[in-house]
Amino acid sequence: MAISETDIANMALMKVGAKPKIDSLVEDSDNARLCNTFYRPMRDAVLRAHPWNCAEHRKIITQLSEAPAFGYDYQYQLPANPYCLRVLQVGEDDEQPTVWKVEGRRLLTDEGTSIKLKYIKRITDTNEFDPLLVDAISIKLASKLAMPLGNSQGLVDALVKELELITLPEARTIDGQESSGDELEVDTWMGSRY
User: 100 near 137, Cβ under 8 Å?
Assistant: First the structure.
């Protein structure tokens, strides 16, 4: 079953006990205006908070002609399509670790020509959302709606706690099970003792 931004907003409204439900984020109601104000920033914040498998993207990017003023030899423009919300990895797993830093919308490093980038992309199509991502966005949105709609700091605290202690850890566990994982190297010297 497809889920929409409005469905996610209504989940958040239910979590804070707000009525009535909305039919659109752009309808002329206080609930819709609040949801419309907070939805996109909260979606992006939740996407940045965890390396969601459904939001991971890989791209090879090429260096910019202008070098950084100091500290690094090269700089790269972070991808705009799909939009990069968070850099996860620069280079391949089996390569020597690359030293890098994000400043604004640029990635600085001493690696030149082109680099392999793994990152969290901004997802706007709710059909691409993992069910746990839907839950996390609705909770995060509800935490922002709790004060203007219910004037309840206690509810804000409970929602933040639910997100940080239940929803995100569950997502980390499930997402972590959807890959083969890293290969463990066995130290033969240490292993020989047993």
Answer: no
Region 106-120: mean pLDDT is 95
In sequence order, what E strands does the chain have? 56-62, 74-77, 84-90, 100-103, 106-109, 114-121
Q: What letter does residue 103 receive in the DSSP assignment?
A: E
pTM of the model: 0.87
pLDDT in tens, 25-42: 999 999 999 999 999 999
Q: Which long-range contacts (CB under 8 A, 24 or more apart) does 151-158 make?
A: 152/16, 155/16
Q: Could you give the angle at which helices 131-150 and 153-162 cross, rounded to 10 degrees?
A: 170
Give the HSE-up count for residue 159: Cα atoms under 13 Å, Cβ half-sphere: 26
Peptide bond connecting 169 to the previous residue in cis, omega within 30 degrees of 0: no
How do the domains of the chain map onto residue ranges? 27-51+130-176, 56-121
Query: Where do the DSSP E strands lie in 7-113?
Result: 56-62, 74-77, 84-90, 100-103, 106-109
Contacts of 105 (CB under 8 A, 6+ apart): 77, 78
Question: Would you say 168 and 136 are in contact if contact means Cβ atoms under 8 Å apart?
Answer: yes
Partners of 89 in the β-ladder: 118
166-to-1, 85, 109, 130, 150 alpha-carbon distances in Å? 24, 23, 36, 16, 23
Beta strands 84-90 and 114-121, pairing class: antiparallel
